[in-house]
Amino acid sequence: MLHAVHDVASKLLAVSSFQDVCLSVLNRCMLDNGRFEAGRFGRGQHSSASAGAVLNGVVSIPCVPARLRQRVRRLGCSLLTTEGHLRGHDEHPGDGTTSWSLAQVLHGIAKDSTGQFLRSANFANGLTRLLALQNRSDGSWPLRRGDFDDPVFAFYPVLLFEQLSRTQGPYAEYVQESIRLTADYLLDVASATNGTIADAALAVSALDRIFRLGRLDDRAVSRYFDHKARLISDLVDETGNLHLTDKYIQNDLQPRWHSVTWTPVLYACTRHWGGVQSSHNFQISARLIESFDRTESGWKGPSHSPGRASSWASSLALLNVYLLARDIVTSGLDVTEYQNTMRSMSARKRFDVVISFGGPDRAVAREIRDHLVAAGLRVFFDTDFRHDLLGEDLAILLQDIYFERSRFAIAILSRSFLKSDWAGNWEWKAVLARMNKQRQGYLLPYFLENVEVPGLNPTIGFLSADKVSPCEFADIVVRKVQAGRRP
């Protein structure tokens, strides 16, 4: 499979060898004396935050030889002092220990499959120092003690804690209280009305990992699903265009610090939300590929000014290209067809799935909705969009949602559906209109009862509740959507 992924990645970037690009970037990231390039290639200054990007980016790609990956991780470990401090920037050598850089470097080191670096006192003391930076009252992560906090600083600690929890080593229990505090904080971030879409995306992606670890209680799980459903639908706007933008952050204390959440490298966060052919993933991957500078053999990041490629942007972008290529291969897609669709407007649907049902069948519909949302699909479910529906002409709005803005429609068919003024009338008319235009692959019927539905072609495949449970039906829908059988 690795060979196939390498070929797809090479085609995506229009280069002869993806591996050669990885090795070229990694070589330019490494300076003398165990230092890592701070920003643009050729700058010649060290940054431990950039080291974290290298360790978590290009060094994580399997086509980089294992011996080379191990050597770079060893250099990363050497950035930690025996007291757990990080080597600072060349301009501020005594001040490299921020929660942002420390979490990244520790996570990059923890990825080592041999576990040898986890056994070092430097790693143990670095982890202790990181945990001490967390605000224990609200779970947030300040940049430094007394400095500002930001949702982005909580992301890499969660990745680190997930890695340590899965290794079942000595640190698994050590980080559990910090996971709980961070989860509470991230739930608040995901629900904030004054935050950015990028903040919410990082928060929900981190919560995905905490959820998979089984560290959310029932109430937190319910909040997580609700926030995730809303976020995924908000990733694209009403016209189907990507709603994500780069987010710049900086502090006002000395030494000054700045960073950016760069949209193209968020594919690693969103890739499981609806699959590789989901509208937001098409558009994020398009930005990722289009921003590759073949002359520089790298990425400049959010900067549009002329100059050399950036170490951190190139390292993280390469990982995202690898993940995209792997997802294309796993989905059985043709890379050329994917590229053509990626560039087209036809990929821009706001919702993966809309659900139509009669009022008495709401419990079944919600069970299906919860399962689809947990799998990362963008779902139109009426109660999730009360604010969009309020005051609108629903006949016109629902026609638009069902006809123009969705990839698939689930119809939960029963006597209640047929009696419903909305589901059995306006929504069903919109479904039939779409089916007249598109003969197959749009409607996903689920029968709760044996009823005759006007206008439904008897040759269309369906599933029924007497043989398939709502959760099993939802699983099948997820596989269909993620398999890329796109309308």
UniProtKB/TrEMBL annotation:
BP term (GO), one: signal transduction
Pfam families reported in the protein's UniProt record: TIR_2
Record PROSITE patterns: TIR
Residues annotated as domain TIR: 349-485
Coiled coil: none
Superkingdom assignment: Bacteria
Name of the protein in question: TIR domain-containing protein
Provenance organism: Lentzea flaviverrucosa
